[in-house]
UniProtKB/TrEMBL annotation:
GO terms for cellular component: cytoplasm. It catalyses: dCMP + ATP = dCDP + ADP; CMP + ATP = CDP + ADP. ATP binds at G8, P9, A10, G11, S12, G13, K14, S15, S16. It holds the Pfam family Cytidylate_kin. GO terms for biological process: pyrimidine nucleotide metabolic process. Its EC number is 2.7.4.25. One of its GO terms (molecular function) is ATP binding. Belongs to the cytidylate kinase family. Type 1 subfamily. This is Cytidylate kinase. It comes from Conyzicola nivalis. The keyword ATP-binding applies.
């Protein structure tokens, strides 16, 4: 199976580009940030203090997470609850980095991500996040760092969020990258990782860059 690993900072287009590229290639698509977000949502739902690592680790004993990996049937569930939209709420985004910096949480989710890759029945899968090219799937067939200037990423994020001011959106994106960067390096391409800088590309051009790279890797 072809495994395509994509990392990058917040708002670089990882989810949207990966999903569209997977559709074009007939591949599955795994959004790993969704799992960290779903665990953060679960913590808030159960009144767990997200600054207390041991309480977050305890949550893993009862974390019935599931994700849709078909690009046309994307969903995120915790048990029977569909949290696809809820995990994108600002209150979840505000605490997700605290959840993601707990080593036991990361170890548990890395194994979960690998089991989802193994469960895929398509000829390939695109998996995106922050540590996919380096930790989750360092042996992936194609490894990409998808990036764009902070200015471009902020502008794209502001354009899709009508509930937050542009200044607040920019501040949140920058602070989340700063916190996440302390845990994994997704700003610099590791050896063998190809950088795609989408600052001056439109969405379709970025998807084509990924698809072309995968096709030429055969
Ligand atoms: N090359 C591009 N040109 C213009 N807009 C783009 C491009 N790539 C992505 N976008 C848009 O940027 C926004 C952010 O993309 P997306 O949510 O996929 O980023 P992300 O890296 O997954 O972010 P996060 O890590 O915060 O979840 C989306 O509205 C998407 O359509
Ligand atoms: N491989 C990953 C993926 C995500 N994270 C953490 O989850 C947060 C949400 O990710 P999005 O891609 O949905 O924005 C992100 O800010 C990281 O804290 C991670 O650590 N590793």
């Amino acid at each position: 199976m072809t495994v395509v690993a994509i990392d990058g900072p917040a708002g670089s287009g990882k989810s949207s580009v990966s999903r569209a590229a997977a559709r074009a290639l007939g591949f599955s698509y795994q959004d790993t940030g969704a799992a960290y977000r779903a665990l953060a949502w679960t913590a808030l739902d159960r009144g767990v203090d997200t600054e207390q690592p041991e309480q977050l680790v305890a949550l893993l004993r009862d974390f019935p997470y599931s994700i849709g990996i078909h690009p046309d049937d994307y969903f995120v569930r915790v048990g029977a609850t569909d949290v696809t939209d809820a995990i994108r709420e600002p209150r979840v985004t505000a605490v997700v980095s605290a959840v993601a910096r707990v080593p036991e949480v990361r170890a548990y989710l890395v194994e979960l991500f690998r089991s989802v890759i193994r469960s895929s029945s398509t000829p390939g899968i695109i998996i995106e996040g922050r540590d996919i090219t380096t930790v989750v799937a360092p042996d992936a067939t194609v490894r990409i760092l998808l990036t764009a200037t902070e200015e471009a990423r902020m502008a794209r994020r502001s354009a899709e969020l009508s509930t937050e001011s542009a200044a607040k959106t920019a501040q949140q994106l920058s602070s989340r990258d700063a916190q996440d960067s302390k845990v994994v390096d997704f700003m610099n391409a590791a050896d063998g990782v190809v950088t795609i800088d989408s600052t001056d590309l439109d969405f379709d051009q970025t998807v084509s860059a990924v698809v072309d790279l995968v096709r030429t890797s055969d």
